[in-house]
Amino acid sequence: xxxxxxxxxxxxxxxxxxxxxxxxxxxxxxxxxxxxxxxxxxxxxxxxxxxxxxxxxxxxxxxxxxxxxxxxxxxxxxxxxxxxxxxxxxxxxxxxxxxxxxxxxxxxxxxxxxxxxxxxxxxxxxxxxxxxxxxxxxxxxxxxxxxxxxxxxxxxxxxxxxxxxxxxxxxxxxxxxxxxxxxxxxxxxxxxxxxxxxxxxxxxxxxxxxxxxxxxxxxxxxxxxxxxxxx
Length: 231
Prior knowledge:
Layout: H1 3-21, H2 30-35, H3 37-46, H4 48-64, H5 70-81, H6 85-116, H7 119-130, H8 132-141, H9 147-156, H10 161-184, H11 186-191, H12 204-230
């Protein structure tokens, strides 16, 4: 692996380390959102387009650097931009960030890792290449897998860029919609002095519903494999 190909990864790692060292992720919390809601809302009102662009850039950077802020940012999108624009801006920002990480990983390390990982990863890559879209859709829909890991795995398994982007945008839409809707009602909760936690959003019913959608995404794979065995 040449230094030129490795450079984007080194820059990304350095930026992530700097962000954590400076404690930037600590500002992306529900408490910070509650304390700065008035100022943020006023800025959105006076500079809507610039605020929307800044929000999407922040979301893109947070995802690319794998900062644990996606849930809070999605709630903030619903709170500040409402429905449906909070959903639109969040999906765009998250998809751009995931795509950036995918491209960097595939360009810098994908070929090398696949060449050195042996037959196990090679067999996974073969299976993933046949049904990559549905596999990724399942991984995006079911909130049991770290977002950063789901961003990297398809790159290392040889998934193509366009299906990756489409599956990512579709797969994060249901969860984004739920969080944005919850975020749109946060103003009333904050005004009443109520406590808010991410557990309030991630109810067992929601998790079960997302898991069900994930299983539906795998249904075409199951049917195709069944038909192959029938031939």
